[in-house]
Specification:
Elements (H helix, E strand, L loop, with lengths): L7 H15 L17 H12 L6 H16 L1
Helix pairs in contact: 1-2, 2-3
Length: 74
């Protein structure tokens, strides 16, 4: 899977991995169709950061979910 290219499949994969790493119970409002190609790089950066860490503070989780909201609305 080449995550450097926008596709709905890649967006879904990254959202699912972020939710899994953050142990987010809900994320139903996050859908690949909500992410425009222009926001893909931001999502990829966020995904890379989340994938590189094993633990997250409450403030980090809050910041990540805020960014996910911005990406989704973008």
């Amino acid at each position: 899977m080449d995550l450097n290219q926008w596709s709905e499949e890649n967006v879904e994969f990254m959202f699912e991995e972020i939710k899994r790493k953050l142990r987010m119970a809900t994320g139903g409002s996050i859908k690949a169709s909500n992410v425009k190609a222009e926001a893909y790089e931001d999502l990829k950066d966020l995904y890379d950061m989340v994938a590189s860490k094993d633990r997250f503070s409450i403030s980090e989780i809050d910041a990540i979910t805020t960014e996910l909201g911005k990406i989704r609305k973008g």
